[in-house]
Structures are given as structure tokens and as C-alpha cells.
Here is the input.
Amino acid sequence: QVRARARDILGNYGVVYATKTFLYDTGAPVSTVTYPSNGGAVNTLPITLAGTSSDPGNSLVSQVRLYLRRDDGWYWDSSNWVPGEEWLPANPVGGNLDNWTKDTGNAFAGQDGVRFHVWTNARDNALNQEGYQKRATFVYDVTRPTCSVAYPYDNGYVSAAGKPYGNAYDPPNG
Here is the structure.
């Protein structure tokens, strides 16, 4: 709290005090991604990104921004994949950004087997920023793996020494 009182050159003091109360906050807020999980895979649409944020300095988080980037370096701008960085605003859950979400629209349409990265950046009411950091990497995977039995042959016979074997395949990143 700051209180001020005026005094003129002759030494007379003003009767009214000016008072301002404020919070001194030099700590950066922190944000995380909770869905999709880092290193995970997602196989359903739509995908809504989710996360949390907090401010250890208690001035409250005022903004969370994020980047959604494909492995090839293109960024989602809420409607298209573009070559340059495009930040997206997170939406508060329950009136504040302690928990946040971001609808990704049709970002994942036609993106089967692609790896994605999410960066976040929180800002508090004292204008402290944490800086963009990669919080999650995940794969969008809707292709089912395949498998086959190579031995024994269909309707064939197996001796006591025969060992069944086969093959399985899941596309890269799947």
C-alpha cells in the first residue's frame, strides 16, 4: 500500500491522503497441458486440448496462449495449417484459467499418423510471462494395426517341432 500527502513550498500539508493498494508480483506463472498426455496417442475426434495454469505470485493468470504444430513445422491458426507460428488463445473453464481448454476444430482431419506438439505460455495480471515451452507431444492415430499368421498354413498340419509365427504392422507413429 502506498499513501501520499501533498506539501507545498511553505510547508502546508494537504488534508486528504491519496492511497493505493497493490500486489507486488515478479514471479512468472506456470502452464501445463493435461490432454493429450505427453507421449500419448489420440484416436478420436474432436480433440479438445486441455491444461492448467497457476501464478505463484498471486496476481492471477490473465492469459494462456498456445501453439499447435505438426512434425513438419506447420502451425494451426484455428482454420488452416500455415507455415508461420500462430498463437491461439486458451479458453477458461469455470471463469478462470486455473483450468483451460482449446477446441481444435478440424485440425486433425486427414492427419492420421502425424505427430503434433503443443507449446503454452501463461501471462499474469502483473504482465509476467513464463515464455513458450513445449508441454506435450502426441500422435493422432486412427489406422488399426494389421497382423497375419504365416505358419502354420491354413488347414495345414504342425509337427511337434513346428513353431507358429506371423507378422504384425502398425504404420509409423501409430
About this structure: Residues 101 and 165 are 46 Å apart (CA to CA). The longest strand covers residues 114-124. The chain has no helices and 15 strands.
